[in-house]
Amino acid sequence: MSVGVLPGGYWDAAGRLHRDFELAALTGREEELLVQASRLSTALMVTQVLTRCLRRLGTFRPVPAEVIRGLLVADRQHLLLRLRQETFGGIVRANLICPWRDCGERMSMEFTIDDLPVEESPDPAPLYTMTLSAQAAANSGNRDREITFRLPNGGDQEELSHELADNEARALNRLLARCIQRTGSAAQPDEEYVSALSPLARAEIEQRMVQVAPKVEQTMEVSCVACGRLITAPLDIHGFFFGDLRADASLLYQEVHYLAFHYHWSEREIMAMTRQKRHTYIDVLTDAIEELNRDS
Description:
Structural class: alpha+beta
Order of helices and strands: EEHHEHHEEEEHEHHEHHEEEHHHH
Number of domains: 3
Number of helices: 13
Radius of gyration: 23 Å
Distance between the termini: 41 Å
Number of strands: 12
Helix content: 40-55%
């Protein structure tokens, strides 16, 4: 069981902030479920796995799916990394190709999840209010300068994931419309209002969102072993996590068969084990079989 504190946190309807959590490692059942659900959007898969593995968040026990969807994007990323660490171990390995045209050397990169910087929100709040510059408001048709917004969450990712692939500009427009809660004294604006915002107004709102949001670093700096240049490599958190599951999908059933054949345990008992526990029994069994073969 992994315990920790979210870099952002979840605000409930009563205005209470929930940040401390307990997270259980994946069992065989979750591994199987996620492999079978691989055609779902990544956002939906994250919600499914966290709903099953996040055992407590503040006073929520169990944690409802609507709370998982309401978690900030960085909080979901942080939990996914901690779950990856709990299930697969903390070391991450990746292959890279140097992007410099005169090099192009293939190299390996290795780091631990604890190496990734996590920044807490400097000003945790359910809503934030800012004032647009006079120029930004004027360029948007002299609208109200006061903007109240919330930060993007998992529900936004689920709702917009398919549209993001088809029409990124419209998806980002809809995201901003979902996040802006009030303009001056008016209620939540529609997409038409957001479309009419000037580029300067949008930039000011987005910059303020970045300033107050918690952050999980998604790049790593490494030096090319061939040319020595410093490379900034992107880290695809979802790709690392779900890629590990897909790569080992066939092994899961082989492990179940192996343990069931030798120990006569039921599939239900074996699938309820974490990966680490399955592998511990497999290592013990392998050593025992090798010892018997040497003595025979």
